Fold:
Amino acid sequence: MSTYHIKHLEEYYKVYRKSVREPEVFWEEIAEEHFTWHKKWDNVLEWDFKKPEIKWYQGAKLNITENCIDRHLRTKGSKTAILFEPNNPDEQAEHITYNQLYERVNRFANVLKNEGIKKGDRVCIYLPMIPELALSVLACARIGAIHSVVFAGFSATALSTRINDSDCKIVITSDGSYRGNKTIDLKEIVDEALNDCPGVNSVLVAKRINSEVTMKKSRDKWLQPLLDNASIECEPEIMDAEDPLFILYTSGSTGKPKGMVHTTAGYMVYTAYTFKNVFNYKDNDIYWCTADIGWITGHSYIVYGPLANGATTVMFEGVPSYPDFGRFWEIVEKHKITQFYTAPTAIRALAKENLDYINKYDLSSLKVLGSVGEPINEEAWHWYNDNIGKKKSPIVDTWWQTETGGILISPLPYITPTIPTFASLPLPGIQPCLMDEKGEEITANQIDGRLCIKYPWPSIARTIWGNHQRYKETYFSAYEDKYFTGDGALRDTVGYYRITGRVDDVIIVSGHNLGTAPIEDAINEHPAVAESAVVGFPHDIKGNALYGYVILKETGEGRLHDNLRKEINQMITEHIGSIAKLNKIQFTTGLPKTRSGKIMRRILRKIACNETDNLGDTSTLLNPEVVQEIIDNAL
Ligand code: PRX
Structure:
């Protein structure tokens, strides 16, 4: 029985049971049937969550780009692999066929080789959503270099931290980027970042907005002439199954960002398998995920998963509001999109606009709608279902994380009956469980618990770059022999999971994962600030927004405070990026603290959410009097 493509609910349950009973047999069959290997594995899985150490397909040899490109050439050479839709709707869309993808990735790979990049070297990619982004990712994989894509909305400081953390040798960027009616000078940001990055001696610059940029002699080169002169043939580097494929940074509740390391074979098998099943991808479909490749969603479900299935994957450069709020739907009609995958925050923003923006367009090509990045609220779910899917396209509410590499819990479209706000059932190979605060597994239903996974799956991140101890502490220490997700969830009577949100100090704002500690660090950099605490509060479009409580070294009034608010947000923009700006800033003379000096965020969260009736026990506070002051001045 081929288990690669599940076709009905009974089959799902059968496959799922097999994947739990005989996980190695299950993942071996999938790997055997659907991929190109230079050598097969000696061992399907070796693992120990205590160390922790996880190895899939050990001994296997492969190159992921052969699986994403070369093997499709014979049958799909002239099929569109990447469909690029520019920011400006008047600019022509670009269809890159599999044949062209082969040539362009090879050229790019040769350029990197000529720059001295070898297997295992780290390459930082800081690009907007233009074809060069996908091409550079694949070019790295072609030669075995480890890519570290940094979302091009991050600031110079955030960029330099990430470059230095993984010791990148080279940066690939562009002169700038388009975002709606604005342009952003990316090269300037890179220049600023590189003042703090002594290890980078080469910068490749793609031309996108034709802005004036300063090119530093002997360091900076325009990309296009190098590509033009490079050969279209580049032998793929033969990789071990467990060789790192990429590093992708994600925020933690404390400390600097975590460089999650994903390896080659398991990641490839899992993203390919889940793409096929979660989106029910069929040969002539045109699949569009609106994420940015700077996030895991873009890595797994714009680049690797779709291409490993020989799919057509759309890359959109722009924003949903430009030139107007109908842009997404215009693109759906124009390219006859069959699968559309976006974030709840985008859905909520568009749901606020007039339905005329939708009704102008023919959306009848749509077959599957996806949601990712944060819990989708019931209202947004219904709006999406009624107005975009016209009640005919199932919604797949996909739960997963940067660390998981691929989707772990999701309905299968046309197979799993959906319930709004429930991510529903675990995909084959995934063994979730809920734990209570005492560390016991919750076996009953309808009880809120902490979501853990009991058994490894092929695309779990293997470590944090340069800090295996932190990997162990963050994910494998809360509960013995379990991967802890950091999310809360509950399970209903039929086994459906509903994700309730983070249980740590990570706040998801517009689908972006933000740790409170780095934001507080940025605020505290302001010379007038003594201390700060950041919490989340519900926001009708962003899902959550940020509320900062700030203690000033010297108190001031009125206008001074307004200026300080601007400066504090400017500080955050410089250190992290504008995605982490605070919506509300309250100045206070103190923060509620425990006797051991820990800030009681629970209380601050309640005040920010305007739930001051029941603040819980405040008797253990060192300074209970400050609570009333904070309530009285709450914004
Ligand atoms: O809290 C969960 C939320 O996003 C977190 C992971 O964020 P990140 O690593 O940036 O990856 C986002 C894209 C995969 C999770 O711990 N999250 C993601 N998808 C969902 C979700 N929360 C509820 N429902 C979802 N479908």
User: Anything to note?
Assistant: DSSP finds 20 helices and 31 strands in the chain. The pocket of adenosine-5'-monophosphate-propyl ester is lined by residues 250, 296-297, 371-375, 397-402, 423, 485-487, 499, 502, 508, 513 (CB under 6 Å). The longest helix spans residues 558-575.
